[in-house]
Specification:
27-stranded mixed barrel; mainly beta; about 0% helix; twelve-stranded antiparallel beta sheet; 44 strands; lipopolysaccharide transport protein A fold
């Protein structure tokens, strides 16, 4: 009978038994026999004398969300044995599917044997074995088993996957949620590449499980051979830790730890290390002192981050970045902050509380800094135990005007050097006006008030004089800006030309020598600050006097999305502002010309360039250009920087960097990159360059990089570094790196000159 419903009591008993015995992930699901069950088949027979129920032909048994399919299903009531044969499959509610040619279960369906078992897990991982034995209802032992999380080849599914594990014996323990292997080979592309007598990893249902991870190895000129085996520890549902003891043949042991905790309203991350080793110390540039060595010194680092939402208004957090010395992070290849081979010069630690209340913002911060440059010292590095900010912007009034208030309190201290305490506020009113012919006016009036208490502040004009007093200022400023946009609309494009005029009026000076300049030292005069009332970057310096600004904005926009925009402008000071140096571009009456050009004729071509031209001969004083050209199959991105000398750079900076990358296909990508110093007569030339390649699919990641550096630190010599990483899904990462050995003073990859 086709698709016949079985009302017989024996059939229902048969269904309950079969469903209770059907395996899931080779262990078998636990069916609730109290649920209604339905069987459909081409034929169902019941032998009352033998107590045997047999269903044949396209058998489908369904109970709840579970379904069993087979060609033939037999249930023997007397021996309590279920036999399913011929294209057997069990579909779990979770989506997992088990396939077999033959299955026989007994002893309350907790024991049994399965022939030619194949399992498709929810993450598309696959298991297979010649035979399996089920015991205890939650343990499956498989002989000659295979496991792989890789998808089979679409063109030839019979081909070996990218990687797989083959074991003489494989055990899947559902209670412990682990898979264990004995006498296991790892194969890649069908070829054996590794062997171990024992291996264990979590099954795909496990997101986190304690255990040893794959080893980490580093070979470096300063480290020798360094290796360690990480241990991952699941503390509870909300926290875990990774312990990584390492041993270096040149530096000795290093202990490292990473701790993570997730809260209902935030998170906590901590990464730290400690060791006891010697440290080489080079003299400062220009010193004739020989290099020295600090012996048996305790060294290490700690990075940390915490974030918590107190309520809908307030949140708090911290960042900790600290190292025992300037070269520890680069020496031990600790790159959480991408410090290794990166131009990170300062570690910043910060604790804060901040609140967002309607149109206002309040924050309290504390800062500590650690410089990593050779001339940085903790003795003269400032720290900020207290900094409080409050910002408010009112709703627009009927005529569009808005009131704003910015208040700040800061305490800045040094162990050796200038100290200052500051209370400051800036309040103002801005109102726009739009004329009937399309003119746009912006009027502003601001007042800045500051009170300082200072100690040991050196007078710039008299180096032998130090200020220890209380001082302050009241600085009013008026501003106006006018523009008139002209539009032209074509069939496929529109064009905008907008002349801009403006001016600011304020008292001259108002930057007494007793007020230290802590937050307004580094000045970059470009289009981003051209229209600012205060062209200084901070509060310690004000932009006094009367000045006018004039410029032109323009743009062309095509219907296809292509566009080109630009800006060109200059400012004029009625009285020379002595606060700006010659290299700033704002000294004298006329400033340098400021320009910006951005061009994007195609989604595969973007260029933006900001530059400053000399006011007398239009020579380029500063230029920063960033470009991205090409599709993902072959893309070139690069930047060029030309900047004048500042107290942070020894001479003019002129540097170019670039990355040439290719997304070869959905799995492969390659890249080459480099940074070069273009200053004439500079012996450095190349700062660094390198190349890399990455392969990534659903079960495997391979990443290899080569980097050549030409800069040296106290413990790191210039040279070549090779880094690689192999990531196997469910098994973990195999990562390492090494500095290429040197031969006759040079590198095996070539000279460093």
């Amino acid at each position: 009978m086709r698709a016949r419903r079985c009302p017989l009591l024996a059939a229902l008993a048969f269904l309950a038994a079969v469903l209770a015995a059907a395996p899931a992930r080779a262990q078998g699901p636990t069916f609730d026999s109290s649920q209604a069950a339905v069987i459909t088949a081409d034929e169902v027979t019941y032998d009352n004398e033998l107590g045997v129920v047999v269903a044949r032909g396209a058998v489908e048994v369904t109970q709840g969300d579970r379904t069993l399919l087979a060609d033939t299903v037999t249930y023997n009531q007397r021996s309590n044995t279920v036999i399913a044969s011929g294209n057997v499959s069990v579909i779990e509610p979770t989506g997992e599917v088990m396939f077999a040619d033959y299955m026989e279960l007994s002893d309350a369906m907790k024991e049994g044997v399965i022939r030619d078992i194949r399992i498709l897990l929810t993450d598309n991982s696959r298991m297979a074995a010649n035979g399996a034995r089920r015991t205890g209802g939650n343990r499956t032992e498989m002989s000659k088993g295979v496991f792989s999380p890789c998808k089979p080849c679409e063109e030839d599914p019979s081909r070996a996957p990218l990687w797989q594990l083959k074991a003489k014996r494989m055990v899947h323990d559902q209670a412990e949620k682990v898979v264990r292997y004995n006498d296991v080979f790892m194969e890649m592309f069908g070829l054996p590449v590794g062997y171990t007598p024992y291996l264990q990893h979590p099954d795909p249902t496990v997101k986190r499980q304690s255990g040893f991870l794959t080893p980490t190895n580093v070979i470096g000129n300063g480290l020798g051979f360094m290796s360690g085996v990480p241990y991952y520890w699941v503390i509870d549902d909300a926290s875990d830790m990774t312990l990584l003891p390492m041993y270096s043949s040149k530096k000795g042991p290093l202990g490292r730890m990473e701790y993570r905790h997730a809260y209902s309203n935030g998170l906590l991350l901590v990464d730290g290390s400690v060791t006891r080793t010697d440290r080489g110390i080079q003299p400062l540039f220009g010193d004739d002192e020989p290099a020295t060595t600090e012996e048996n010194e305790i060294r290490g680092h700690i990075f940390g981050r915490g974030r918590w939402d107190v309520n809908d208004t307030w949140r708090t957090g911290f960042d900790v970045q600290r190292a025992s010395d300037k070269t520890f992070l680069s020496t031990y290849r600790i790159s959480n902050l991408q410090l290794y081979n990166q131009n990170v010069q300062t570690l910043t630690s910060n604790a804060y509380v901040e609140g967002f209340m309607g149109r206002s913002y309040a924050a309290a911060n504390a800062y500590a800094f650690q410089g990593l440059r050779s001339f940085d010292t903790l003795r003269t590095t400032p720290y900020v135990p207290v900094m409080w900010d409050y910002n408010f912007m009112s709703e627009a009034q009927s005529h569009g005007g808005r009131f704003n208030l910015d208040a700040n309190t800061m305490v800045l201290e040094r162990n050796d050097g200038a100290d200052s305490r500051r209370m400051s506020f800036i309040t103002g009113y801005q109102v726009p006006y739009y004329s009937p012919i399309g003119e746009v006016y912006k009027f502003s009036a601001t007042v800045q008030g500051d009170v300082y208490s200072v100690n040991n502040v050196r007078d710039p004009g008299r180096p032998d004089v130090e200020h220890d007093d209380v001082t302050g200022r009241l600085f009013p400023q008026l501003g106006v800006q006018w523009s008139l946009p002209f539009f032209r609309q074509g069939e496929e494009y529109r064009q905008v030309i907008e002349p801009v005029l403006g001016g600011f009026l304020a008292p001259n000076g108002h930057n007494p020598a007793s007020i230290p300049n802590e937050d307004s030292v580094d000045i970059e005069f470009d289009d981003t600050r051209f229209f600012s009332a205060n062209r200084f970057t901070g509060t310690d310096r004000v932009d006094g006097g009367a000045r006018g600004i004039y410029g032109l904005r323009s743009g062309v926009y095509h219907s296809s999305g292509a566009y080109a925009t630009g800006f060109f402008g200059q400012s004029y000071n009625l009285r020379q502002n002595e606060e700006f140096t010659e290299g700033s571009g704002m000294a004298g009456h006329r400033s340098d010309y400021v320009a910006r050009l951005e061009v994007s004729p195609h989604p595969w071509f973007d260029v933006i360039s900001r530059f400053r031209l000399n006011k007398d001969d239009f020579g380029i004083e500063r230029n920063e250009t960033i470009a991205v050209i090409g599709p993902p199959i072959l893309q070139l991105s690069g930047s060029y920087l030309r900047a004048p000398s500042t107290e942070f750079s020894n001479g003019r900076v002129q540097q170019v960097s670039g990355v040439l990358s290719s997304k070869v296909n959905e799995n492969w990508s390659v890249r080459a990159y480099g940074i070069r110093d273009l200053n004439n007569g500079n012996d450095l030339g190349w700062v660094n360059y390198g190349a890399g390649a990455t392969y990534e699919d659903e079960c495997f990641i391979f990443d290899v990089r080569w980097l050549r550096t030409f800069t040296a630190s106290e413990e790191i010599d210039p040279g070549d570094t090779i880094y690689f990483k192999l990531s196997f899904k469910l098994l973990g990462d195999l990562a390492g790196g090494f500095d290429a050995p040197k031969i006759n003073g040079g590198n095996v990859f070539g000279s460093n000159n």
